[in-house]
């Protein structure tokens, strides 16, 4: 009897064993699971870079150089970042059809998956602005009034107060911002394509960029009607002044002629 009671298990033995097993399992998962996930992510990124390099070699290297160092026909792409690639290729500006004062927007020739691969390769050449997330450029929750103030202060000189675009010197122009993907507007502010200055987060905060995008979305007449009625193209004081001269002054001249004719006729009678 004494031997049997000596061999009897302690009531908490099963609990101790279970806790020990859980601790071992958790430790093993923590040690190996993150490593395997990171390894999978690295493998996917390496594949994207490799595929992007192939696309670059066939479609971009002629102008920008084999290693992206640039040539006399195209600037260096080292350090421009993935955002610049997503903007230029995603808006169809690159590959360019022909050299000129400015490369216009056109239909893109690469799929978004291919653009992502090209962006991954260019980003591997040197650090630069990255493609923004949807939360960064979505107009939801933004301050439209603040965005309008910022846009008129920093952008309207070239793009017009409502984003209709405008002419610049030497055959260059500020393109219309109507019906432009909010992501591409954000990327343009990040990277400063062609004649546009760049607005990094140190110059213009992420929140301010979001406010500007919300303002442009609100004044885009391709998405909604102008609450002010006839917009005259939204081109500002030039078109409004021309309208006033042609129709306003024209109407006054017509009224003056009519009054003079009536007066002369009354005197004759």
Automatic annotation (TrEMBL):
The chain crosses the membrane at residues 242-261. The keyword Transmembrane helix applies. The keyword DNA-binding does not apply. It catalyses: a quinol + 2 Fe(III)-[cytochrome c](out) = a quinone + 2 Fe(II)-[cytochrome c](out) + 2 H(+)(out). Residues 47-126, 142-220 form the Cytochrome c domain. Its main location: membrane. It is an enzyme of class 7 (translocase). InterPro entries: bc1_cytC-su, Cyt_c-like_dom, Cyt_c-like_dom_sf, Cytochrome_c_Oxidase_Subunit. Its EC number is 7.1.1.8. Residues 1-30 form the signal peptide. It is found in: Cell membrane. It is a multi-pass membrane protein. Keywords: Cell membrane, Electron transport, Heme, Iron, Membrane, Metal-binding, Repeat, Respiratory chain, Signal, Translocase, Transmembrane, Transmembrane helix, Transport. The cytochrome bc1 complex is composed of a cytochrome b (QcrB), the Rieske iron-sulfur protein (QcrA) and a diheme cytochrome c (QcrC) subunit. This is Cytochrome bc1 complex cytochrome c subunit.
């Amino acid at each position: 009897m004494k031997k049997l009671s000596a061999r009897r298990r302690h009531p908490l033995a099963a609990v101790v064993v279970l806790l020990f097993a859980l601790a071992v399992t958790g430790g093993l998962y923590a040690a190996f699971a993150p490593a395997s996930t990171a390894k999978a992510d690295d493998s996917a990124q390496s594949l994207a870079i490799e595929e992007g390099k192939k696309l670059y070699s066939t479609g971009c290297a002629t102008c920008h150089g084999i290693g992206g160092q640039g040539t006399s026909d195209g600037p260096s792409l080292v350090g421009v970042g993935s955002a610049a690639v997503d903007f230029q290729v995603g808006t169809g500006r690159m590959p360019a059809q022909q050299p000129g004062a400015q490369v216009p927007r056109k239909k893109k020739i690469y799929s978004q998956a291919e653009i992502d691969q090209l962006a991954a390769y260019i980003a591997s050449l040197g650090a630069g602005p990255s493609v923004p997330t949807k939360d960064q450029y979505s107009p939801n929750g933004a301050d439209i009034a603040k965005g309008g103030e910022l846009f008129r202060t920093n952008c309207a000189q070239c793009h017009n107060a409502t984003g209709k675009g405008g002419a610049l010197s030497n055959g260059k122009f500020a393109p219309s911002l109507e019906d432009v993907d909010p992501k591409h507007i954000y990327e343009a502010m990040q990277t400063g394509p062609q004649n546009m200055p760049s607005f990094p987060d140190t110059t213009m905060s992420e929140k301010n960029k979001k406010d500007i995008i919300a303002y442009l979305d609100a004044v885009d007449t391709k998405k909604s009607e102008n609450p002010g009625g006839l917009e005259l193209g939204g081109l500002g004081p030039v078109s409004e002044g021309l309208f006033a001269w042609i129709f306003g002054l024209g109407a006054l001249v017509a009224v003056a002629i009519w009054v003079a004719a009536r007066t002369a006729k009354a005197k004759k009678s």
